[in-house]
Structure to design on (223 residues):
């Protein structure tokens, strides 16, 4: 099995940022959605939100894994230092300066990465006996918020954006085209709920339950 090229390392890590960022974006979008839309399938939406938050953490965990053979951000920075002369848009001095800047940024993520690593090792990838006995311990010892995950992804994205720009001139945000298309699905659910209420009121009188926002508007009006 051959060793990946620096280009392959960059591409693999960009892919992880891409999926991690999208997982988190969907989770945040669902958390902010109209609760009236979510309540009729709350188990589905709750599990979807939780799963996307966990998958975002796993994407970060892979990027900062400590296993010897992992293709991590630290490996990328090490290989970039070794291959500084191969960068097309910067001289070796500029590449080394960018690497040092990135290393400082990674150090700033240490508390967040430590929490993610502990959560990965004790619940997400493996079930630690201590976590099974006392699940609350992990929440106390490895505190983590959605803004923490967002910061880890954003910082990593910035590192990769700067390094790949120097390497081959790549620019722009790392994102899926249509990464927010979950909004379309939510809008159609909203419209269906509004239509149901409208038909109910025509047949039975005033609807007394919760009502989605903007029931008078079509799904495409809210995009």
């Amino acid at each position: 099995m051959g060793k990946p090229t620096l280009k392959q390392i960059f591409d693999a890590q960009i892919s992880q940022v891409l999926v991690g960022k999208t997982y988190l974006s969907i989770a945040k979008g669902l958390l902010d959605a109209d609760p009236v839309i979510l309540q009729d399938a709350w188990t589905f939406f709750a599990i979807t939100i939780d799963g996307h938050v966990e998958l975002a953490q796993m994407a970060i965990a892979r990027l900062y894994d400590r296993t010897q053979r992992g293709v991590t951000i630290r490996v990328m920075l090490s290989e970039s230092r070794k291959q500084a002369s191969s960068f097309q848009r910067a001289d070796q001095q500029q590449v080394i300066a960018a690497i040092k800047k990135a290393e400082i940024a990674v150090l700033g993520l240490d508390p967040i990465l430590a929490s993610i690593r502990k959560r990965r090792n004790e619940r997400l990838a493996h079930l630690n006996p201590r976590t099974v006995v006392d699940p609350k311990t992990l929440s106390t010892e490895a505190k983590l918020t959605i803004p923490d995950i967002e910061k880890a992804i954003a910082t990593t994205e910035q590192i990769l954006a700067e390094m790949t720009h120097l390497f081959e001139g790549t620019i722009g945000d790392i994102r899926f085209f249509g990464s927010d298309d979950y909004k379309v699905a939510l809008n159609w659910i909203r419209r269906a709920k509004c239509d149901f209420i409208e038909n109910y009121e025509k047949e039975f009188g005033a609807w007394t339950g919760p009502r989605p926002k903007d029931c008078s508007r079509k799904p495409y009006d809210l995009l």
About this structure: The CA atoms of residues 191 and 217 lie 8 Å apart. The first helix runs from residue 6 to 31.
